[in-house]
Amino acid sequence: MRPKGRTGRTLLAIALMAPGLAALSAVPAVAAPASLISVASNRCLDVVGNTSTPGSAVGIWDCNGQANQSWDFTSSGDLRTFSGTRCLDVENGSITAGARLLIRECTGQSNQKFRLNANGSVTAVQSGLCLDVVGAATANGTLVNTWNCNGQTNQQWRAGAGPGPDPVCSVNPANPNSNTAVRKVLCYLHSQYGNHILAGQEESTWNGGPEYEMNHVQRNTGKLPALRGMDQATTDYVGRAITWWNSGGIPEVAYHMGAPTKPDTYEGSQMAVSINAVLTPGTAENNSFRQRMDAAAANLQRLEDIGAAVIWRPFHEAGGTWFWWSKEGGAQYVRLWRYMYDHLTRTKGLNNLIWMFGTNGSPNGAFYPGRAYVDIGGADTYAGSGNYDPQNAMYNAARNAVGSQVPVALHENGPIPDPDRLQSTNTRWLWFMTWNSHFLTQHNSIAHLQKVYASSYVITRDELPNFR
């Protein structure tokens, strides 16, 4: 594994050592480093972008146990991160309320000295001002500056520790009964959103076997993708999904469901059917629809039985007019989605699904089923061979379509967006999912594939934390 400082490492401490305060019972005196958790939001003090570059700002983000959220109070009053190589720093030594907090190389100067107080506040020694989550906000990405100490919870911090996704993660799955694996995976995905992109690869089953794409990636890069894409409509995928999960990866399952009463094939998925008939109990269409959902549920249940979380991606490319589920517009699509959600979660009792809502290349909020039914949003495109554009306009449109509560992924692609351009254009797809066959092998040069999988911005399977 190449070191990137972002896998789910185990923190070694459960509290902070504050200089000169060990005798105060309100201040725990246990070994460091540890995460610093904002009492107001349950989010961690975080170096923005997970970069050790001097001058990087600090804010709050879902706790993930990574190096940019690991802090160590030293005996001299430094607040160090990145294994002690960087210090928290009040910009330009300012003693004015609202001064920015950054990380810099450690200098020992007074603008890098801090004190942990008995009430949980952290004071900049030079100014006497407190570390303050700006505007008392609780959202991911909110910056932390200095401000007049006021005793409010946005100025109070507690120590925390834990491997991988932090147990105080505040992300709520769409399904309130979701199992532990779903919660761990979702917390991790949210922690990476905006900081990294997960590599994903769709399998085929007709190019000499279902390992064709995985072998191509591994043979040319030495790595495997973090996500493996499969489809309910193809041959039995469950064994491969179980192996992938047990090997440390995340399985994603789509379903090119044939129109009810029509063939359950890719070709059948493009045939027309009345959605009113599909949703009306007692019709042939409704009976067919429920039978197909039950068959999918049986496979998904096998994965739940071994403790696996699954990214479930039904009714993809919403907004397009080629698949039956999208031909009648947004309102009918939403009815269909919610019907399936209720059937799989409430009737069938599946609690291991992460619900992925994916639009086509022109995201349309009219198709969005709502936060109560969706965990991840996204869009897709098949740019021309060798076109490694980050698709910034589509990313922003996808975000607008689903709002700010769920991250968005590039849920299908041909050419993989260039990691450098993703960062320079602030195009923060949660993952990419390269389509199978020639979309991988011909639309992406070997040199580009190697660049992608070697990038510190791209997360591969070996770099995921342990969700099991």
UniProtKB/TrEMBL annotation:
CDD domains in the cross-refs: beta-trefoil_Ricin_XLN-like (cd23418)
Keywords: Glycosidase, Hydrolase, Signal
Signal peptide residues on this chain, from the entry's feature table: 1-31
Entry GO MF terms: hydrolase activity
PROSITE patterns: GH26, RICIN_B_LECTIN
Keyword DNA damage carried by entry: no
Cross-referenced InterPro entries: GH, GH26_dom, Glyco_hydro_26, Ricin_B-like_lectins, Ricin_B_lectin
Active-site residues per Swiss-Prot or TrEMBL entry: 317, 412
Residues annotated as domain GH26: 180-462
A Pfam family the protein falls into: Glyco_hydro_26
Gene3D superfamilies per the UniProt record, alphabetical: 2.80.10.50, Glycosidases
UniProt record similarity statement: Belongs to the glycosyl hydrolase 26 family.
Name of the protein this chain belongs to: Glycosyl hydrolase
Annotated source species: Saccharothrix xinjiangensis
